[in-house]
Design goal:
There is one protein chain. This protein has 25 helices and 23 strands. With 766 residues, the chain is of the alpha/beta class. The chain has four domains: 170 residues, Rossmann fold; 162 residues, 3-Layer(aba) Sandwich (Rossmann fold), CATH 3.40.50; 102 residues, Beta-Lactamase (2-Layer Sandwich); 136 residues, Histidine kinase-like ATPase, C-terminal domain (Heat Shock Protein 90, 2-Layer Sandwich). It has a six-stranded parallel beta sheet with strand order 2-1-3-4-5-11. A five-stranded antiparallel beta sheet has the order 15-14-18-17-16. Strands 19-20-21-23-22 form a five-stranded mixed beta sheet, covered by helices on one side. The longest helix has 51 residues. The chain is elongated and about 170 Å long. It starts with a helix and ends in a 5-residue tail after the last helix.
C-alpha cells in the first residue's frame, strides 16, 4: 500500500512544474541567481556601502524565502526609526540542518569570511535556530556587536542563557490556541497526528504540543510521525483513522530538493485530513491549490515595530542589556477559505475576528472591474451627450453674440471717417466699409480680392506691395503712406495703419487696417514749409541790413568819434592831467564799443562767409567767440569743397553759431570741438563738448527756440539733425546736409508750385 501511495505521489509530483525537467532547469537558474546574489553580497555590497551608513546584519533561521513575508516591512520600519542611511546584509540559514556539525562549521566559515573584517553596527537574529547559532558563535562572527532577536518563543528565551549586549522581542506563539481551534472546528476528532522533523528546533515545538495535549485533551489520542522518510510517512499516515486532525510542523527548507518535497507531502495530507500548524504560514498557500486550514498566529508587524524601536534606542546610545526583552502581542486566527469549504466548516463556527485568506471573490468582486468600466462608459456617454447639448446651446448663443458683434462692427466701421479694410492670410481683401466703397466708386465689388492694386498710384505700387508682403511674412503691425485713386480720378494721399488678426485657435487670419486721407495735411505742411522758408529768408535779409548799417554807419561814426577825441586831447601841456585821463578813457571805451558793434555785425551776417567760404567763416567765428568768452574751441575741417551752395553754407554757419552759443552758455566747460567734413554726397558738421549735458527728450518737449531754429533750417536744405546728450555725459550736435541743396528763395518758389499742384490735382509732390 505504501508503494502504491509513493508511486501516486510521484506522479502528482511530476505534474508539479518544480519537479519536471523544466522545473529542474528553473531550479538551476534559480540557484545560479542565488549564487550571483551571494557574490554581489560578498564582493560588491561592502565596496558600494556608504561610508557613514549604519551596517545591519539580519540572520534568518530558514532559507525558504516564502517563510518571511516581512523583510521589506522590516527594512522600512528600521529606516523610519533610525536616522541616517542604513546598509542591510541578509543571510539565510538552514535551521533544520544546524544539528549537523559539518553544516554548522561550513556556515560559520562562510559568515566569518564575509563579515569577519566588517565593522557591523547591529545584528538581528530571527527565530530560535538563528538565535542559538548567533549566541554560540558570537565571539567568532561579531564580537561586541549589539544583538536584537525576534520571532523567538518566550519559553525558549527563558531557557537560553543571554550574553551581555543582547536584547529582543519574543513571539507570543499560541500552541494551545492552535490545538483548541482544531478541536473546536472538528469536535469529532479522535486522533491528533503530529508530523514534524527530527531537528532540535522541531522537537522543541513537539514537546510543547505534547504538554498541551496531555493537560487539556487527555481523551484525544496522539500519534507522532517524527523524522520519517516520505514513504514511511505516507504508509503511517494512510493507517490513521478518519477522525484525525494533523498538526504539520515540518519546517520549510530550500537546499534539499527530494523527489517528494515538503509541499507535496503537505498537499497529500491536506487532501485527506484537516491540517493545522502553530505557524499558519507553514500550511496556508497564498495561491494555487489549497494545502492547509491554518492556525493561531501572531502579529508579525507588531514584532517589527518593536524591533525598530529597540534598534533606535541602541543607536541612541543605550546599552542592549539595559533594554528589557519585550513580549510581543497580538494573536490572530489565520484560516484558508478554500479549506473551510472543503471540510464543510461554516464561517459562523470560526472565532470572531479571524482572518480568512484566499476567499473566492463574489460576483461583484469578480466582475467589479468590468461593471465599473461599463458604468464609467455609460456615465461618460451621458456626460458627453450632456456636454454636446450644452455646447450646442452655447454655440448658438455665441453665434448670436457674434452676429450682434459683427452688426455693431459694421455699423461702427461704416460710420468711421476712415477707410477700413480687412484681408485674409494671402493678402486678398475680404471686407471694405461703406466709406471705402464710396471712395473708389459706384461698383460695390471694387477693391475686393486683388483688385485694390489697380487703385494705387503706379509710383507707390512697388513700395506698397513690398510693405504688405513683408508684413504677411512677419505677421506684425505696419503703417505706410501711399496714393489711391478716388472715384473722380484724382489721387489722394492715404496714411494706412494695419494690425494682424488671429482666429479662435490663435492662427494668423490676416490684417485689419484703417486709412485716413492726409492730402490736406500735406497741403498745410507745404504751406508751413513755405512760411518757414520765407520767415528765415526775411530774417537773413534783416540780419544783413542791420549788419550793413552797423558796419557802414555806426562803426564808421564810432571810429570818427574816437579820432576826434584823440585830436581834442591835443598836446599834453595844454589840458590838465585829469581831463586828459578822462578823454583817454572815453576814447578807449569808444574803441571797445566799435569793436563790439563790429563783432555783432559779423554775427548777424559774416562777410567772411561770402568772401572766404564756409571753412573760413566758421574758423573766424570760433576765434572771435574764444577771445570774447576766453574759452578754447578746436576747429578741424576735411575734404570740404569750395564753394558750397549758398543755402547750405548759410545753414551750416547759423547752426554752428547756435550750437556754440548754447554750449558756451550751458555746458559748464571751456573746451569745445567743431568738426566740418564732406563726402561726395553730403557735408557734415559736429559740435561737441564734455560738459554737463542734458535730457534730450525733455528739451524736445519744452520746444526751446534753439532746437526749433536748427530743425527748421535743416528742413529747408533737406538735411538731418541729431543731438546726442545725457546728463553728465557731454553733448554732441550732429547735422548733415546734401551738397545739392537749393537756395531758400528757390525752395520757397518751388513750395508755391507744389501747393498749387496739390490744389489742382490732389497729388503731393514727392
Amino acid at each position: 500500500m505504501a508503494e502504491e501511495l509513493m508511486r501516486k505521489l510521484q506522479v502528482e509530483t511530476e505534474r508539479d512544474p518544480t519537479s519536471s525537467s523544466g522545473g529542474r532547469e528553473r531550479r538551476i537558474r534559480h540557484w545560479l541567481s542565488v549564487v550571483g546574489i551571494l557574490l554581489l553580497v560578498l564582493i560588491g555590497f561592502p565596496a558600494a556601502a556608504q561610508p557613514n551608513a549604519k551596517k545591519i546584519l539580519v540572520l534568518y533561521s530558514f532559507s525558504n524565502r516564502g517563510t518571511y513575508g516581512g523583510l521589506i516591512d522590516l527594512k522600512s520600519e528600521l529606516r523610519a526609526a533610525v536616522p541616517g542611511p542604513i546598509d542591510f546584509y541578509i543571510e539565510y540559514l538552514e535551521g533544520r540542518r544546524l544539528d549537523d556539525e559539518e553544516y554548522e562549521k561550513g556556515e560559520l566559515e562562510i559568515l566569518k569570511h564575509t563579515y569577519g573584517r566588517m565593522k557591523l553596527d547591529l545584528v538581528l537574529l530571527e527565530d530560535d535556530p538563528a538565535l542559538d547559532f548567533g549566541l554560540k558563535h558570537r565571539d567568532e562572527l561579531f564580537p561586541g556587536v549589539p544583538i536584537i532577536f525576534f520571532d523567538v518563543d518566550s519559553n525558549k528565551v527563558a531557557e537560553q542563557k543571554m550574553l551581555p549586549g543582547v536584547t529582543g522581542v519574543t513571539a507570543p506563539v499560541d500552541v494551545r490556541g492552535t490545538v483548541n481551534l482544531a478541536l473546536h472546528l472538528h469536535p469529532n476528532t479522535s486522533t491528533v497526528a503530529i508530523i514534524t522533523g527530527n531537528s532540535s528546533f522541531e522537537r522543541y515545538w513537539l514537546r510543547l504540543i505534547h504538554a498541551t495535549l496531555l493537560h487539556d485533551h487527555d481523551n484525544v489520542k496522539e500519534v507522532d510521525l517524527v523524522g520519517l522518510p516520505a514513504n514511511q510517512l505516507f504508509e503511517r499516515a494512510a493507517e490513521l483513522p478518519r477522525q484525525t486532525v494533523v498538526l504539520f510542523q515540518l519546517a520549510p527548507q530550500e537546499s534539499p530538493q527530494p523527489a517528494i518535497g515538503i509541499h507535496a507531502i503537505l498537499e497529500w495530507l491536506a487532501q485527506r485530513f484537516p491540517t493545522y500548524s502553530i505557524f499558519p504560514r507553514y500550511v496556508i498557500s497564498a495561491g494555487g491549490d489549497a494545502v492547509g486550514i491554518g492556525g493561531v498566529g501572531y502579529d508579525g508587524m507588531s514584532q517589527l515595530s518593536l524591533v525598530a524601536e529597540e534598534a533606535k534606542r541602541i543607536f541612541s546610545g543605550e546599552r542592549p542589556e539595559s533594554i528589557p526583552v519585550v513580549e510581543g502581542s497580538g494573536h490572530e486566527v489565520d484560516l484558508d477559505w478554500r479549506e473551510l469549504r472543503r471540510w464543510n466548516i461554516p464561517e459562523s463556527a470560526v472565532p470572531p475576528g479571524s482572518l480568512i485568506l484566499n476567499r473566492e471573490p463574489s460576483l461583484w468582486e469578480r466582475y467589479r472591474r468590468y461593471a465599473i468600466s461599463a458604468i464609467a462608459l455609460i456615465v461618460a456617454q451621458a456626460l458627453l451627450i450632456i456636454g454636446l447639448l450644452w455646447q450646442r446651446t452655447r454655440k448658438r448663443k455665441v453665434e448670436a453674440v457674434l452676429r450682434e458683434s459683427e452688426r455693431r462692427f459694421r455699423v461702427m466701421t461704416d460710420t468711421m471717417p476712415t477707410l477700413v479694410w480687412m484681408c485674409d492670410p494671402r493678402g486678398k481683401i475680404t471686407y471694405l466699409n461703406e466709406r471705402r466703397i464710396a471712395f473708389t466708386g459706384p461698383d460695390p465689388d471694387a477693391g475686393y480680392g486683388e483688385t485694390w492694386i489697380s487703385y494705387v498710384h503706379p509710383d507707390d505700387l512697388t513700395r506698397m506691395l513690398d510693405t504688405v508682403s513683408r508684413a504677411m511674412r512677419t505677421q506684425r503691425p505696419f503703417s505706410t503712406e501711399y496714393r489711391i485713386r478716388r472715384s473722380d480720378g484724382i489721387y489722394r494721399w492715404m496714411y494706412d495703419v494695419a494690425s494682424p488678426r488671429v482666429n479662435g485657435d490663435g492662427t494668423f487670419a490676416g490684417f485689419i487696417g484703417s486709412a485716413i486721407d492726409t492730402t490736406d495735411q500735406k497741403l498745410a505742411q507745404q504751406a508751413l514749409q513755405k512760411v518757414s522758408g520765407q520767415l528765415i529768408e526775411a530774417q537773413e535779409k534783416e540780419r544783413s541790413r542791420i549788419a550793413r548799417e552797423l558796419h557802414d554807419d555806426i562803426c564808421q561814426r564810432l571810429a570818427l568819434l574816437s579820432l576826434e577825441l584823440q585830436r581834442v586831447s591835443g598836446p599834453p601841456n595844454k589840458l590838465p592831467a585829469a581831463t586828459r585821463k578822462d578823454l583817454e578813457e572815453i576814447r578807449r571805451n569808444c574803441s571797445e564799443i566799435a569793436g563790439d558793434v563790429q563783432s555783432l555785425s559779423h554775427q548777424l551776417h559774416s562777410s567772411k562767409l561770402d568772401i572766404l567760404g564756409i571753412v573760413g567763416a566758421i574758423r573766424g567765428f570760433c576765434n572771435e567767440l574764444s577771445k570774447q568768452h576766453e574759452v578754447s574751441i578746436e576747429f578741424t575741417d576735411r575734404n570740404v569743397p569750395q564753394p558750397l551752395p549758398n543755402n547750405v553754407s548759410l545753414c551750416l554757419f547759423r547752426v554752428a553759431q547756435e550750437a556754440l552759443h548754447n554750449a558756451v552758455k550751458y555746458s559748464g566747460t571751456s573746451q569745445f570741438k567743431v568738426e566740418l567734413s564732406a563726402t561726395a554726397d553730403e557735408v557734415r558738421l559736429v559740435v561737441s563738448d564734455a560738459g554737463v549735458g542734458f535730457d534730450v527728450e525733455k528739451a524736445k518737449r519744452s520746444r526751446g527756440l534753439g532746437l526749433v531754429s536748427i530743425q527748421e533750417r535743416m528742413h529747408l536744405v533737406n538735411g538731418r539733425f541729431f543731438v546726442d546728450s545725457k546728463p553728465g555725459a557731454g553733448t554732441k550736435v550732429i547735422i548733415s546736409a546734401p551738397l545739392s541743396g537749393k537756395d531758400p528763395g528757390t525752395q520757397a518758389a518751388a513750395g508755391d508750385d507744389q501747393i498749387e499742384s496739390i490744389r489742382e490735382t490732389g497729388i503731393s509732390a514727392d
